[in-house]
Design a protein that fits this description.
454 residues; mainly alpha; Growth Hormone, Chain: A; 80% helix; globular; transmembrane; membrane; Symporter
């Protein structure tokens, strides 16, 4: 398929969406359940688990931009992005399974090393696969609205993966003889499915012929000079910086919710074991239904305005969690419906906006540097996820959280703040940045004209 082919076939969109099923399944499982697995099943102190996870994110400050630069300059008969999916599918699955296999009886030091090593290896493989996967989408079509359509399909795949990671994993764990065995088996199954999903994209989706590596002169430049030049060009793209900053705040807020929700349902709402998957099913079901609505909204509005509307709804619901009392299951359900409607905008809109900012950068620099943009976007996304996880771990430690018992008033207050109030404020802070975002439908048409895209 050439770069000028703006319309994508249904098979191409579906094939691309399958990859998100596997990738988002891993992300959801780790966002919602990894910390509570470490603290309540593997019995690792919260501060030790949080510090170990931080090690992987320190490495992430290097690997996301570096791998983005690498993909922009990769030469392969399989394409500069698709080749990473071909050779990364199996290692990603193995690394994902290892994260959930913490040996019993480890000392705090040994537990720190085990978590730091397994999670860092997983994070590296995830970057090597997810970054090229996302970068492929920016080159598959240049049409402003067709990108929204492709993103909608990818978001549906992501939703299915998120459902599996957050709802089916607890079900698989409960079916095992004990929780430790259940997490190990579920992790192995999820790793296998994720590897197969990535392999489907590598088999079904081909990169456009013009998705070529950078010019030969760039290959001849010293490594650091080349990376610095590409990074500098990316950081001078104002629309991209505005979008990335807003999306980072949103990711921070939503990851706080993901990391705290299990604690909120178990200890604040005082729910039973079936409540968490049921509430997650409601939330993700609403998100899925809302995607069709958001696609229509984006087709009629500008993308940034639609994103803002979603954030307002989501923030209102999250702030309302502060008033949920033990046993308020009906109120909890109503709040999750509102949050899910708003959250649907985040699942589709920003991912349709990133390629537009890349087109703007192409117009500025005269060179299309897809990988570096997704490298920086992925870096900030993962740093936000890690910061949220560390904040939740720190909150549990400071407020005196004790696993598997009734919590103190201080611990419950901390859980409530991390699940609703602080995430809601993060979403509100992203709104001014999106109001300043300049790329509209008409402006994008002008950019395409300047860069000669059709």
């Amino acid at each position: 398929m050439s770069l000028s082919a703006n319309r994508l076939s249904m098979g191409t969109k579906l094939g691309y969406a399958v990859g998100n099923v596997g990738l988002q399944m891993l992300i959801a499982a780790m966002s919602f359940l990894l910390m509570i697995f470490y603290t309540d099943v593997a019995l690792v102190p919260p501060a030790v688990a949080g510090a170990a996870l931080l090690v992987g994110k320190v490495w992430d400050t290097i690997n996301d931009p570096l791998f983005g630069w690498m993909t922009d300059r990769t030469r392969s008969r399989h394409g500069r992005h698709r080749v990473y999916l071909i050779y990364g599918a199996i290692p990603l699955g193995l690394a994902a399974a290892a994260v959930w296999m913490v040996p019993p009886g480890l000392s705090p030091v040994a537990a720190f090393l085990w978590i730091a090593i397994t999670y860092t290896v997983f994070d590296t493989m995830m970057t090597l696969v997810q970054l090229p996967y996302q970068a492929m989408a920016a080159n598959m079509t240049q049409d402003y609205d067709e990108r929204t359509s492709l993103t909608a399909f990818a978001s549906m795949g992501a939703l299915l993966g998120f459902f599996a990671g957050s709802v089916l994993m607890p079900v698989l764990v409960r079916a095992a003889p004990d929780a430790r065995t259940g997490y190990a088996l579920a992790g192995a199954v999820f790793g296998l499915v994720a590897g197969m999903a990535v392999a489907v994209v590598a088999w079904r989706v081909r990169e456009p012929a013009t998705s070529a590596p950078a010019a030969a002169e760039a290959h001849a430049a010293p490594l650091w000079a080349s990376v610095r030049a590409t990074l500098g060009t990316t950081l001078h793209n104002r629309p991209f910086l505005l979008l990335m900053s807003a999306a980072t705040l949103v990711r921070l807020g939503l990851t706080l919710v993901q990391a705290s929700l299990a604690y909120f349902v178990i200890y604040q709402l005082q729910g039973d074991k079936s409540d968490l998957p049921r509430f997650m099913g409601i939330l993700l079901g609403v998100v899925g239904l809302s995607l069709f609505v958001w696609k229509v909204v984006v087709d009629r509005w500008e993308k940034n305005r639609a994103y803002i509307l979603g954030l307002v709804l989501c923030a209102a619901g999250l702030l309302a969690l502060y008033w949920v009392k033990p046993g308020d299951r009906h109120l909890m359900t109503a709040i999750l419906v509102v949050v899910g409607i708003g959250m649907g905008a985040h699942w589709i809109v920003p991912f349709a906006m990133v390629p537009d900012t890349i087109d703007h950068g192409h117009m500025q620099a005269g060179e299309r540097q897809t990988g570096m943009y997704y490298g920086l976007y992925g870096l900030m996304d993962k740093l936000a996820r890690t910061l949220a996880t560390v904040l939740v771990a720190g909150m549990l430690d400071v407020t005196g959280y004790v696993p598997n018992v009734a919590q103190s008033a201080d611990a419950l207050q901390g859980i409530t703040l991390m699940t609703g109030v602080l995430p809601g404020l993060c979403l509100v802070l992203a709104i001014p940045l999106l109001l300043a975002y300049p790329i509209t439908r008409s402006r994008h048409a002008e950019i395409r004209g300047h860069t000669g895209m059709r």
